[in-house]
Fold these 3 entries.
Entry 1:
Amino acid sequence: MVHIPSAYTYNFWAKSPTEVVELTCLMPNGVVIPLETNRNITLAEIKEDLWDEASKYPLHGTLKDAPSYVFSCINSNAEAEELRDETRRLCDIKPFCSVLKVIEREGVKSDRSLDSQIGLLIGKGLHEFTGLRNSEVNDFRWKMRVLGDEVAMARQKKSWMEKVRYQFPTRLAPTATIPKNIECRLKDGNIVLVTKFETTETAFTFQISHTTTPYQLLVSILNKRANTLMSKGYPNDFTLKVCGQEEYLIGDYPLIQFSYIQDCLAKDIIPTLVTLNRDSVSVDQENTAENVEADTLQRTRPSFSTLTLRKKGKHISAWKIEEPFVFTVNAISRLNCDAAHRTVEIGLQAGLFHGGKSLCESQKTKETVVNSDGSCEWEETLRFDIKVRDIPRMARLCFVLYEISKTAKGLKSRRLVKDTKQEFFINPLCWANTTIYDFKSQLKTGAMTLYTWTYAEDMQNDDLLHPLGTVVSNPHIDRAAALMLTFPNYGKEKSVLYPTPEKMVEYARKLRESSTERSIQEEPDQESDVGKLQQLEQLRLLADRDPLHELHEQERKIMWALRHHCLLEIPTLLAKLLHCVEWNDHREVAEATALVQQWPKLPVEKALELLDYAYADQNVRSFAVRCLMDVSDEDLSLYLLQLAQALKHENYLSCDLTEFLLRRALNNRRIGHFLFWHLRSEMQVGAVSVRFGLILEAYCRGSQQHMRSLFKQMECLGKLKCASEQIKQRKDRKAALQGFQEFIQEPHCQEALSNVLNPLDPSFRWKRIKIEKCRVMDSKMRPLWLVFENADPLGDDIYLILKHGDDLRQDMLTLQMLRIMDKLWKREGLDLRMNPYGCISTENRVGMIEVVLNAETIANIQKEKGTFSATAAFRRGSLLAWLKDHNHTEAALNRAIEEFTLSCAGYCVATYVLGIADRHSDNIMVKKTGQLFHVDFGHILGHFKEKFGFRRERVPFVLTNDFVHVINKGQTKKGQAVEFQRFQSHCEQAFLVLRQHGGLILSLFAMMISTGLPELSSEKDLNYLRDTLVLEMSESEAQKHFRSKFDEALCNSWKTSLNWASHNMSKNNKTT
């Protein structure tokens, strides 16, 4: 047997390899040199050792000097990668089989190394995209490359200030008006702030007018410095930076308009700014050579005819084809159903859908028995009750393959088929969807193979078909059943094209003209005008109803008849008007297209609704994106999570929403940062890996400087994930911590963990990890409590928690909804002291959470203040006693109780509306300042944990005796105290504000339906929100309803205490 070195095994780097690695170096002169090295060694050191070693081998004289060469290897993505950065360490490069090849530097195209870097960063080699040999993918890549280069070139021409604004975006309020919640915190309209200098210890305190601009403040600072330190300076040479963050106050705005200043004032913190020289701001210098010249792109552009196919005579309009839609189901192969051991009878159902709604009756094949190899042939033609001309452009053809059996297979979606003698069950096995038209608007023809997706256990469709599922074929073709279909060619030798929007508008105009001629004979009389006014009034009321409000047939008819009046007088009715369109009638589709083209822009809140799953039409979605064009970067950040998820509802790669998000990301690095992570964290999901991968590739090409910073974050997260995996293998927490500290102290980790932007908030940069302050936490998944030193010497340490093993996407959604609610409340002058801390998912079941310092869980407070027992939760005084310990003066205590009262009201309402379940004393925390907040949002929308067959939470709010005791400042009157009545009125006001914006809240959740969150899979989940917000009631009825829920919570506060007591008891019996 030949000895195979361990370094040759395919998983050598995955297992923790030995300190010494046996490298195989392939020299350019054909000689192979084995080299033993340390795994922590850098490439530069390897090169030096290698050239020493080479002198002992033949043909040494043919080698040039070492700097003329670079190393290349096969990386973990199975791609050849040139290793240009020689400070990288061997253990980070992980060359396959530990083989390094030495190649010449000259004439190497820079693009190859960029492609390889992008591939590693996005988790998918770019050769995979090329390997798809898919014209839609190639077309999209070309378009996005042109877009990225165009933005990058424009960026090079920007001024210093514009570049700073791109790289370190300044967060601004939309206007300079002072928000109501901040007005009372100004002293006679003045702001108190502290300014420091980067080099000296000196700090100045100023009390200045809120209208002062950064430039005026700099003048004051430099004058004061000239007087005290006798050093002069010119304001134009300096800039103001937020202390501890990479955020700058630049531009001619009053200080009060900067979000940082507003946030500080709202939290009663004194804003701290650092005055530093402009030269100290590390603005990236984009390298012009990095962006390929535009003319080379023009040359690689696909020929125009393949993209448009608008050549006369080569195509026929789909609207001329009056034949019914048919296709042939040929066969299925590789069906995983155990057919070798039993008789399996299967059938196929197919349906046409548009925006989740059926266009005509679905059709089924005859049932057949599967062959033992999992294949089965039909050769059956399915005929649909719809003409080709009436199938809308964005229609989907949906399939489900099901088994007919005499027993139910535990799937929620089983259906009963009644037979005369026996009962049968339909058990769905797998599904697939595809579009009727391709990305160039051509009707698909000929043979096609679809690779199916397995039917998930948690699918909650009422229908067997899954129209909201992806139109992408399963990329894991080796383990998916393949469905073979054949589509007829209706145009004979011509291709069938769907008409352009212009043609549709023209068609609608002709239709209108012919109908006007017909109606001229029937002259309208005066009475109909009065009736019309009444009908318009009715429609005005409908405009305020929520997105899920079901329209009656009569209402739909009136609305459609008065559509032109709606356009002029009630434009916010558009979403409801689109529900009146019969999408399976090409004439109505033409009319709807013409209407949307003329429709006035809608406010952002209303436009978002048009991007959820129910609006499939591309003209409608494009209109929605046009309405979003003017949205501020601040507001865009608020809705970015949903907009990224809404990409999953798009039928094709190229769409206005993708282009809009990419442009905004390439013009604001903060938005780019979060868009990158929202997409990158789902790259393992087969249905979106190509779409998201291509968008990430386009982003990296258009922002190569940012890519380097993201690469650093990725490396850092990789090390922390490794550390986390090692910790989980150790049962003992002490040993785990010791192992973690040893691993983190290795040079390759120290390097990866230093000088990194915080993925949670890229305005913070850390310098290094403070190992002595880090710890392993005691929950099941063993999260890591991490502390980093701020890169700004004047800034505070950065604390965060790394979670590995928990899906943080639902937490992200809940916290983002809390942020939006907080914004809505503040707009109405209601500051409920919410604390939506940062949370980000970076890859599958890995993510980070911001640590809220100086806070304790209710359970710990009760343990500390009561001699701990099961009944600690009943003791009313423990929470108030704890607050007294941390707030010694009466004024401080009153302030803490006020904070507690406001935040308690905010979270009571938010948890009630969002149906945040599983609330107990371990996931509610209180800061020493009195601010209460909730953590850990594992269950939302009323998905309550079942225990002993009944719901553990019977309370609409979490209101315990202890909470009421604090709100009442320890007085015993439960509901009568003035303080408590104020608390109740805060809750009512907060609830009514959310009701006013019920449409926005519903739309944001609707955009997330069917995007992968198990608790948000169908419209049923949205109905939970409708019910809690009682959107069908009038305001006074809603207030009455809310009061009854509030009283119920108050009466049941002892039950909540009991619940928590049992939670404390069971937790106390466990050893952590």
Entry 2:
Amino acid sequence: MRKTIAFLCACCLFFGITVAQTTPPVKSGPTPNARQMKYLQDPMAAFIHFGMNTFAGSDGIEWGNDVKRPASTFNPTNGKVDTDQWVRLLKKAGFTRVIITLKHHDGFCTWPTKITDYNISKSPYLGGKGDLAKELSESCDKYGLDMGIYLSPWDAWEPSYGDSTPGDYNDFYDGQLRELLGGAYGRLNTETGKREIVEIWLDGATGDGVAHQTYDFTRFVNTVRELQPNCLTWMTLQAAQNYSGPEAGFPVDAFWVGNEKGYVNDPVWMKVAVNGTSVSQYNSNGKYMCIPEADVSIRPGWFYHAAQDGSVKTLDYLINNIYFRSVGMGIPLLLNVPPNRQGKFHANDSVALMKFGTAISNTFQTNLLTTQMTATASAVRGLGFEAANVLDGNYDTYWTMADGQTSGTITVDLGKDVEMDVIRIREYIPLGQRVSGWKAEVEVYGSWREFGTGQTIGYQRMIKGTLLPVRKIRLTITSALAVPLINSIEAYKSDASITSVGPVPPGINSTEASVLQSLKTMKVSKLKFEVLEMPSGHWPTLAEMKFYNSLNGTREEISRNGFTATATSEAKQAVNGEPDCPASNTLDNTISTIWQPEWKPKVSMPQSLMYNFGKQIDLSEISYLPRQTSDQDIASKFNIYTAENAGDPYTLSLSGGTFIATQKTAQFTPIASSDWTVLQNYSTTGTAIQSKTNTAVAQFGVQGGWFRLLGSKSPSTGIFEVWIDGVKSATIDTYAALLSKDAVLYENNSLSADNHIVLIKATGTKNNSSIDSKIILQNVFKLENGVKGMFEMAKTFDESREDAGTFTFEIRRYGSLSEPASVTFITTPGTGVHGKTYEDKTEVIQFAAGESVKTATVNILENSLAEGNKDFYIELNNPTNNHIPGFNTVTRVLVYDNDGDASNSNLEGYCTPGGTQHSEKKAYLESATTDGAKKNVNYNVTSSPTSVYVKYLDDFIEAERGSTFTLNLKGFQAGERSTSTVYQDFRYNKAYIYADWNADLTFSADEKIAEFGQQPPSNVILGNYDAVMNISQTISVPATAILQSIPVRVLYHNAWMSLSNGACSNVTEGMAYDFKLNVVTMTSGIKHQKENLFNAYYYAFSKNIVCTGDFTVNTKFDVINSNGVLVKTQSVTTPQNEVIITVPNISKGCYLVLIRNSKTSEVKKIIA
């Protein structure tokens, strides 16, 4: 009995009160057993592939291909395999079980089995005394990790394998199972004193041409249940064929998810239906509970290959493409981490694991929803099943309604705005998986917005979105197989390393320009969608077709009630329990069902879907959602035909339509030709539209206050007009010397509170500098209903001198200005701190009615320390009167040091790339030059540098903010351009260019200027010759670039490998270069530090300090140690360009070299 009920009943009995207890719901469908429930509650498992394949060939292999290698091939190179390292790192990363491949398909056993001689005892490892099963068991004991085993049924070594071979392979395999499960291996259960194996993996893979072997799965399962009753069985669903017994005896606890990418698609029914030899997985009506397990490797291969060291999956991929699409979908994740030939995890894998584990641990550390918050529901079953149960943290309590109610809503009021980006919902599955449709919404600044939708929930469903200030959460169950049972609703703020902040702040409505195009609305009674081409290697599919009418920038979906669909061909796939694929599936509101043309036998294209609307509708657009369980099954080329009346013949309305072949989300298309071309995935804010005619018009509505139009400025765009309520408001020229996406093209902050219609009209005109007159529109931003206004900083970056005294900045207000409002600004430290760089300040800025701009100040503090440039930040928060923070709410203020030289002329403090050069030393830069800069650089060499990294300080580039220059890179050419002869120069590399524009001593992703070449090259002999041997790249210096010396970093890296750490990566068979760029300005009062006339370097091999520059007579050189003691002094009596200072027995440390003459002085820092 639940604790809450028990407590209430006890109280009521004590006081003599009678309480009618509410009867709980009855079980619905299959339920998880204890083995399955344990795995669902701790769904992080690790896979270890380590065996014969690790040591086969020059760099390991994936499949044995029936090649019988001697046991001596298995030979770890570093003594005892470090299973402690594996388990320690996995435990720290949050994994709860590890599964090791003790026998892969090659048949080699990494424990000293008595069943076959092909095992670890016959290898050199530990003199034949090794036993990986035992070693891993002991490590699991030591660090507290559960242990499972992978034992391949396919055995390419064993002579008895195959139905027609002598001997019974099932006896052989059962004997191996009994050795491994008999109590010698596994984690020690300290309560029972027995070793336990928590999972057994019976991989169903078999190579081509292998003799058929009938596995006795019933025998294998019985052995597992006999020896390890708590062991979860993972195997092919063929093992369940013809099973008709009770749930408890179902042989398969878990099965393969269906891909090796580590994800599952909605719906995730953890149910299996068995009908003789037909076993149907993910079946909502299945009689047996069986959980899919998502397996994937942290790198491309399952076994270790040194060539893949640079291809370890990124944190972003592990989190968003794997974790939230497996664990977040309610199923376990099995992540493979293959040890190298030393028997250790490679450093890149280890780092990725730690980042992955830390991000997950930090994200789910604190549930932001508490029992102090209020939960209400549309209906409640009765006592003990209240809405508040979703907040109590008790798995055995839940909210539910009366039997027969399969839809309902529960709302959690947080009482205040709480920042969150992850919501977790749990269904109480001990009574069965029930929910088949749900929607999660959040209230942000008074408006509800959709946070996520789906079909199944299961043990849990996690939705990760962008960070939002949420006041309420609303979960709506839209459908269920039986009355839904919701165990918990939780909310989290993700770790900073994986937090996604949307391009549009909450409270602002963003309308993509594809909706703004003035589309032709047609009266239509039926429509034909004709697929013209077969996707390469795939089949065209369609999950859902939806229909829209667009008006005034609003896309309105048309109800599909009464619509019918037919097709020229429909797949009849009633094989292995798979459903047919009729056209009607595209109208059923279920993304898991699809239309697909017949493939047995294959039909040719074109094939068509015909939609009869049963009436005449106004139609301008359709949307196409492809199959969600595979990639590239997309009808990328199509025609659309329409008919005004049901009896009319079809007429072609759109010819040669296209969809993106790799996009799995819904794509829209007009049903008739438009004056606009839609540019899919144009920028982070979505799609864009590009005018095709001189009369193209975009249209949208806005209600009072403010709106902002975004688009592109470029060398090839023209002029448009803005018309508001029939009156021309502005003429906008979108020409710019360089392409700038997401640019603010037009903004209006003075509209009355009424409704307005805005037209954007292409004019077909341009200024003389532009190449073309087309225009590109991206988004319109408006305030959400209920939001009266927003505040922004006028600049995101600004500057001050250290001796300025005060720094003045501007705050702007947008939206309705008819009422007063306020916003608070605060100062926060950067590299500069309050009391030293600036005076800390918090101030409320009051805006009166009608005011849109206010200024404020912060005091800047001067000191006499030569400490370099420092920065701090000014942030806006706490807006009042239903105002919100806008896009630009933070200003970074850089304070330039006026004491000493703060220009970092020697480019100190940056990561130093390492790696390897090509062995032939023919892959190097012959020259690097610039054109168009204020001062150009000229780097030339005649032979390969001796080091893989070159920091070139003998010359420099000087360029002004906002200017452009061209960087020319010429690689040494070992031979001509050839597709038949291999020449080992840069042609087998990719090239990357970075610049540290914000001078923070790092290279962020958005500071990558360009990359060149394919990975891997399409032609393995020619390589990337055309792309990387002679590079000419235009570099645009941002208007906000820091006024000091920064590196332009150029990397050349093996074209078959990824950069593991951006601009700080170790390169393989390549080179790394830093070229100094001095950023200067013409316009502001902030002056760049004077250009360095002198330089000083320490050469360790000669123990000399070398000074370079134009040294006049009587120039003096003082060498001072870190304690301020003069170590050496020297002067010149004749003009010189190089002076060598010999300092015998110089100690390691930091030294200052003071160089001065009658005109100037400079201080240089050196490291000995």
Entry 3:
Amino acid sequence: MGNITLQQQLEKKILIIDGAMGTMIQNAQLSADDFGGEQYEGCNEYLTLTAPHVIKHIHEAYLQAGADIIETNTFGATSIVLDEYDLGHLALELNIEAAKLARKAADAYSTPEWPRFVAGSMGPTTKTLSVTGGVTFEQLAAAYEEQARGLLLGGVDLLLLETCQDTLNVKAGFIGIMKAFAAVRKKVPIMISGTIEPMGTTLAGQTIESFFISVQHMKPFAVGLNCATGPEFMTDHLRTLASLADTAVSCYPNAGLPDEEGCYHETPDMLAKKIQRFAEKGWINIVGGCCGTTPEHIRAIAEAVRGIPPRPIPASFDVHAVSGIDPLIYDETMRPLFVGERTNVIGSRKFKRLIAEGKYEEAAEIARAQVKNGAHVIDICLADPDRNEQEDMEKFIQQVIKKVKVPLVIDSTDERVIECALTYSQGKAIINSINLEDGEERFAKVVPLLHKYGAAVVVGTIDEQGMAIGAERKLEIALRSYDLLVNKYGVSPRDIIFDPLVFPVGTGDEQYIGAAKETIEGIRLIKERLPQCLTMLGISNVSFGLPPLGREILNSVFLYHCTQAGLDYAIVNTEKLERFASIPEEEVRLAEELLFNTNDETLNTFIQFYRNKMKEPKKAKTELSLEERLANYVVEGTKDGLFADLEQALQTYADPLDIINGPLMAGMDEVGRLFNDNQLIVAEVLQSAEVMKAAVAFLEPYMEKKESSTKGKVLLATVKGDVHDIGKNLVDIILSNNGFHVIDLGIKVTPQKLIEAIQAEKPDIIGLSGLLVKSAQQMVVTAQDLRQAGISLPILVGGAALTRKFTENKIAPEYDGIVLYAKDAMEGLALANQLQQNEIEYTKTEKHETKPEKTAPTVIAAKSNVSTDVPVFVPADLERHVLKDISLPHIIPYVNWQMVLGHHLGLKGKVKRLLEEKDEKALMLKQVVDDLLQQAQQEQWITPAAVYQFFPAQSDGNRIYIYSPEDKRIMIETFEFPRQQKAPYLCLADYLKPVESGQIDYVGFFAVTAGKGIRELAQQWKEDGEFLKSHAIQALALEIAEGLAERIHQIMRDRWGFPDDPDFTMEERFAAKYQGQRYSFGYPACPNLEDQEKLFRLLRPEEIGIHLTDGYMMEPEASVSAIVFAHPEARYFNVL
């Protein structure tokens, strides 16, 4: 069966590849004897020899289910993996036999109209070059070569490198395959399938774009995705790949995530529905299943995509693209792309010194600094004549790939050094450079590396006669090089970058007079005649030998003119690049004179102008007075230099207390002003508070015990029944670092406990916090109890449940003292300051004797117009599903960063846009949170868990009856929900079939948590003065619980038979634009918090560590529970 048939079939239909081999082997419940003994148990590949009938049966099951392509049982059949079972010596035999076994099965089912194909499965092995190490590039390539040879000898139709997690492994695999093709004298098509982790990259960090760009030179017939965590995590990556790839696109996902019992949550029907949607979008050519999928899944998928046309495969890939860990896909608007030049031993003394001292990691920091300042790619040159270039390259490149994600330019004239570097680069690098100085010799040595590893190449305009100075000559060499590279050596025009060479204008050398102008003209000519190729220049050569400041100006002006002429890549020092727009006109003129009319006069004028000129230095910190500096540390939120200045302040101030109440407090006042002016955000205020706390702690040993810097004493509490304390903690931090003495009574504080504390502590102000609707009522009760105890101290209230209106009309009338509402911590501080300075003008709202309104009789005849004729959505099962140890990366994509960074940490504006625009504040905060997340994962601070279940249910008026999952005739729970008193008269019960319909409907419940221990951790950090971390970890835990709720709700929609569309974005998910709705008790549609108790009886969330308090609140605070409806018209509403 020639592979032409595979190509023909691809054009005709969406091809079906088989499902999981491992899952089927597991389901076969084999004994140790089947594996050839206990020591080989779990080595599935060995079954090809010990139990071939089992493998044959699995192949046949998939062929019967409709698979066009079946995979050999060789996923782990390299000697590297087999050595773990001491079976490495059998690698070749196992691959040959597995291929023969699959070949025989496929041939038995093949017909001329419906050919079946065999793919030689080549897994990622158990080692990754970029992440785990433990194997060399050469060893891996050799192991893959042996595997490919066996598969080819056994008769496979194609080779499949699958579950690729590290592109370096794929490159080693490709080199192994090419060697096997040569050894066996047989070539077959190659298919490559990568695995993208939930965070959106491969394990080794590449995005799908970088991955594709990095494997493109292998000319695979198909590139795609497999494994991962189920289809929804593939959606964005598939969409991207389908729009980018000039190959077929494949997709064979896992059957979702396994639960506690190891059961995968995607049923055949659910998985097929999702893949069908991918097919309808026109994204795919080959589909199937990975872990957890069975012949039933494959049959359902084959049915679902039958008749849907395959994705049309584009004829070519028409852009210049290179990659590191991140992709760089060229676009005209990006010009000029900057190539960071400082990691070059020829051009940077500092870099040369670090390499000579063996400080490779420190040297790699130079690359990081170049990228930070805008370099799109990094040029690496280690050609120091006094050292071993290859050794240095090998050691340095291993450090640099850990520090920067951008593509690399490998700058060397030694092809062995270039090849060594390419074995460490996951991406598609740029090789710098080749030329025709020795005829075609360099071309012949270096171009094969482009085809072997994937790279673009820089071609210098030099030939046998030497370097081209004139523009026409530059073009002539470029045209000759192009012809050879494209037509003789098979290089894509878009991978050719011409360097038209730059010569110094300041050396007075006769032959270089007018050379700068010729270079600019040369760029224009090359771009005109060879529009698909790119150009690159080492800009700073032009100013060689001139005064330092003059060099920066000249470089910038020269770059401007080169860019106007069409330059694509500029090799520059990104840390010292003058912006053309900010250069004074006179200096631009001087530079242009020198560039375009180079002679002794223009040169001397230029040199004289810059000879003694220095850069204007920025005003240094030391020019500020000590007071200004101290205030500034607080405002800037930095401790850098703080303690030295505090030492100095102790010499000049008689009393340390004056330092706190003077300059430091002035800094805090300024912080408050800037915050109210929207110039600072919550996170920055917390950093300022950290500085304040550190300063006070430093000064405390010098203060007498009797001294207290306090403006007054504040007692804080979250009211009875409420466990939310993130807002209250914020108030504590802000007040205590602004001169108040704060006593925090914690959460769930009863009025009695509060009264006792007030009598004991005698505070000046009381602060009450509450998040839930119920807490607002609790504040009214608390105010009444305080009044009866004869207390009339000022009260500040705040929290999500409250409004100014509620405070004035409901709480204030119940109390004898002042009651003020603070919308946030900073307003709380302002009010506390005003209270202590008697600046509050307060008029109390009197309690109105409200006449009882004429209420309609309780039997509201009005009904809502929610449709009653919608179909019943039947869930896949009625089992209780418990998910523990859920990995954080699976939840992160569902976290709403607008809430974390915007709502909790105070970033103003659209977070997503700010991050895209690389806003400094947004990036700083995201970094803080990302570091915390990484730590949380390592230390297991956040341990997400979930439980969910569907129940049969019906409605009866405003009631919902819940029936036993085992016996739908037994009622096990009743909920009664309030109905809106005015149109549209909604009630949650409307979303279920009524009893009189005779139809059984279904409702879901879930409870999720971010795990326990967060409050204690946050408290510890708060005490240690790490306020931002303390606040951020609480915010993160809350939003991870919300994100997990979002994820579990999505799984429930899947299992209910109405999965989200593949085009469904996270923004739409956060806005609840899906079918059905979830409602949490205590919120407006079902305000009765006591209903939590019923949910707990049904679900038993105690098993995952969630408990109910006396006030029906969940502990830990970062937990979410809900009742879930499937009704298409379900929406949020308010009954209050």
